[in-house]
Amino acid sequence: MRITRWKPVALLCGAVLVAAPTAVAVGAPAQPSAEDYYQDAIGKTGPELEAALHGIISRDVTTLSYSQVWDALQVTDEDPNDTGNVVLLYSGRSQSKDDHGGDADQWNREHVWAKSHGDFDTVPGPGTDVHHLRPTDVTVNADRGSKDFDAGGTENAEAPGNFTDDDSWEPRDEVKGDVARMIFYMSVRYEGDDGFADLEVNDRVGNGSAPNIGKLSVLKQWHEQDPPDAFEQHRNEVIHTDFQHNRNPFIDHPEWVEDIW
What we know:
By secondary structure, this protein is an alpha+beta fold. It has helices at about 35, 45-55, 65-75, 140-145, 175-190, 215-225, 230-245, 250, 255-260, and strands spanning about 5-15, 15-20, 80, 80-85, 95, 105-110, 135, 150, 155, 165, 170, 200, 210-215.
């Protein structure tokens, strides 16, 4: 792995501005451009597109250990306004990178695709895939638990804007699309051909321990409502260049969600 240091030089990335890296680790493999990366998927739709993307994002991936995830999240989710902090997914709170663990008000590693949905625990692979692991407040993480995603419920007192009921969790508006695209990534990345369960997004809640998460129709709405922003695009780039060497295609090509689902 390598750590990229960032300087205040703006590069145009679609319609948003992101920071430019200043250094590359010596001997690190060169990563293809996003255009070259998706060459095998261009022009495809439906099952053919999904199969092509699965092959692309499963190729030459560096798998992290669960302990390495702590270090990765301190880079991928760094607060651009305070480089000593990370931004917590559900609350939006900026918190010291070092203040992580299992105590109340610390941050821990949230599996957005709940690890019980497919029973992959924290085993290297889906259990350590940083594309769906995010820093969250310990108490808020516990309140979300392993619930599916849907709209409605009672507002979380510690993370206003997030709602929950018996079988679902609704994240705040600012990250609704982020959550949806993480779920879509996991559904395409893990197809049951690598010793783990075939993870599939579906249009229901209450999936329990089945390798499914919903609710697809709501997640698609959130994807449209909250398109990729600079923070999410930067995160995708850092995971690709510095850690796992694969990308979330639904951040780079949001239109592919409708082409598959």
